[in-house]
Amino acid sequence: xxxxxxxxxxxxxxxxxxxxxxxxxxxxxxxxxxxxxxxxxxxxxxxxxxxxxxxxxxxxxxxxxxxxxxxxxxxxxxxxxxxxxxxxxxxxxxxxxxxxxxxxxxxxxxxxxxxxxxxxxxxxxxxxxxxxxxxxxxxxxxxxxxxxxxxxxxxxxxxxxxxxxxxxxxxxxxxxxxxxxxxxxxxxxxxxxxxxxxxxxxxxxxxxxxxxxxxxxxxxxxxxxxxxxxxxxxxxxxxxxxxxxxxxxxxxxxxxxxxxxxxxxxxxxxxxxxxxxxxxxxxxxxxxxxxxxxxxxxxxxxxxxxxxxxxxxxxxxxxxxxxxxxxxxxxxxxxxxxxxxxxxxxxxxxxxxxxxxxxxxxxxxxxxxxxxxxxxxxxxxxxxxxxxxxxxxxxxxxxxxxxxxxxxxxxxxxxxxxxxxxxxxxxxxxxxxxxxxxxxxxxxxxxxxxxxxxxxxxxxxxxxxxxxxxxxxxxxxxxxxxxxxxxxxxxxxxxxxxxxxxxxxxxxxxxxxxxxxxxxxxxxxxxxxxxxxxxxxxxxxxxxxxxxxxxxxxxxxxxxxxxxxxxxxxxxxxxxxxxxxxxxxxxxxxxxxxxxxxxxxxxxxxxxxxxxxxxxxxxxxxxxxxxxxxxxxxxxxxxxxxxxxxxxxxxxxxxxxxxxxxxxxxxxxxxxxxxxxxxxxxxxxxxxxxxxxxxxxxxxxxxxxxxxxxxxxxxxxxxxxxxxxxxxxxxxxxxxxxxxxxxxxxxxxxxxxxxxxxxxxx
Length: 762
Known about the structure:
Layout: E1 18-23, E2 26-30, E3 37-49, E4 54-56, H1 64-84, H2 86-89, E5 96-98, E6 103-106, E7 118-122, H3 129-135, E8 139-153, H4 170-178, H5 181-186, E9 189-192, E10 195-198, E11 205-207, E12 211-224, E13 232-245, E14 248-249, H6 250-257, H7 265-268, H8 270-280, E15 284-287, E16 295-297, E17 300-305, E18 310-313, E19 316-319, H9 320-328, E20 338-346, E21 351-358, E22 362-364, E23 368-369, H10 377-387, H11 391-404, H12 412-417, E24 420-421, E25 430-435, E26 440-442, E27 447-448, E28 480-486, H13 492-508, E29 518-522, H14 527-539, E30 542-549, H15 556-567, E31 570-575, H16 576-582, H17 588-602, E32 609-611, H18 614-619, H19 626-631, E33 636-644, H20 651-655, E34 664-672, E35 674-685, H21 695-709, E36 718-723, H22 736-747, E37 758-761
Parallel strand pairs: 28-29, 28-30, 30-31, 33-36, 36-37
Antiparallel strand pairs: 1-25, 2-13, 2-24, 3-4, 3-6, 3-8, 5-6, 7-8, 9-10, 10-12, 11-12, 12-13, 13-23, 14-22, 15-16, 15-22, 17-20, 18-19, 20-21, 26-27, 26-32, 33-34, 34-35
Protein name: PAZ domain-containing protein
GO molecular function: RNA binding
InterPro entries: PAZ_dom, PAZ_dom_sf, Piwi, RNaseH-like_sf, RNaseH_sf
């Protein structure tokens, strides 16, 4: 068997539709005059406590505020290190590179690995006040340990080796750090891995829910070229905006989240309180009433108000409001608001303890991104509206981002390396582009060819009086199906009109859809109720449920999808705005087509297939259809692999050493029988595990399915694997050897021998 990881060389050269020049969002790094090598070290900074114990300062909480603070503190200590030991580092500080973690690079050879680790001491008194405040009085001294690691040649790289297992990213990693040095040096950006955003300012765009949009970019170093040998490093810049929580009093944010409802609604309305609590969870806030203010992460929100929440103080019970008056001589302006819970783990027993803070004595710290779980539909709409850019504007914005990050010839760090930016005068790198011939779209009763200009019409709708396009393989219609409507999502007349239009449009495309057996309205959405209802439907032959909600992101969606798995009944969700659009005078047909296409796939149908266009065959003087006979032939199997990890744990969970509870999800899809017939599987494994488990067993089942459904009843001749969800450094771990092993083991038990001559990865 031949095992190929890189892209195979093209055997047949075909004529293309067109060629032209394009501008890419990258700037080439000119390495022709670069120094020969840099020297990599491991640099660790330790704080010495009063009891002589050491604390690694590069470790700490994972929230955005803690990361930004840690970057500033570590950079300050690092700069002091270089100044204190001028006899070792010299006076040109731009010859050194640091990522505010443990990676340190030097243009000069400071000392050899044979000399071992070297230790440097720094006095806390020499540091700026902000850094000393961060370290607190418990840190009485600092120690920096430096250990040589490797030499990195700036003119040779295996990052683009044809052999995946021989690739290593040392040079690529160094160039990514080197091009970020000025941002760290000037403290001009909030840096989160390869993303950098402007620090909070009055120029931020206000959006819904007490959030702001902040401009920034995603920056990567890629090796780009027409061949492995010609690949050159390019700084890829992608301008973007992200939603951040605005710096503001916490009471103001809570008022915004309540849509300016009366504060007592937080106590009376449990759903509103839960929704606000989800927004506040893990948010970093700063106290405003202490002599020395401090930061903490919000753990939760109480159900009781500050004037009713009782806490023990000196063996006596008192309310939080009374305690604030007694301790700080501060009378609460909003005693009827809930309190914020701070949870911390301390003492030898590691037992969790709660502290309660009145909302009005807290303010939201700026510079915190809004994670996906906290993005409301209104915020998503604001993001779409404010983040879209026309191509020319995107080019200009990329240029502004590059200049703001000082990725220019004037950058002193790049100058010390002898590295410069090619096309530096407002011109990113250009390249040759090829317009490939688009394929033709195949339906059961027709074929859609691209226009002479290459445009392809994917719409299912046809002019009035023409024959409708029948799906390539219409799904078998469900014997019985029902409609669920939750919380009066629509009036009955509109719902009936929609159902009739949905059924008729399904029949137009070849699905012999019956009318629904029943349409029911529910106000209850608890899991027990839904499982009971859907189990009843399943026992009575229902195979498909269309459910309608008022909101696009209604919580009932997740509950229905769980019942789909438990009960084995296919479900499809639409919101009321989609329903009304499907029966309106504008865009109704396209909306219905999208819904019917989705249903067709859910029920096992194939919407369309692809084939070579007549223009491509004519220009290349081909008589055989190369797409059907070669590229998408029935002996070729396609795999898709993806991994999804849970969000980071909260500070309390990490402090309490609570093991992650949300598993890592692995998804796999594969072709079976024919290239456009797909099946899928997913499974769970230990949280944050990057190596795919159980892959061999799932691949065996997939390959057997391919063999059983193929016309020739044989194993695949070629296997093409598409991967996502892992970094390049993890690619080798995501399964190709396991796929090979699984196929080989299956081939040992069949009565014939099938040659698997290529496995390609993308």
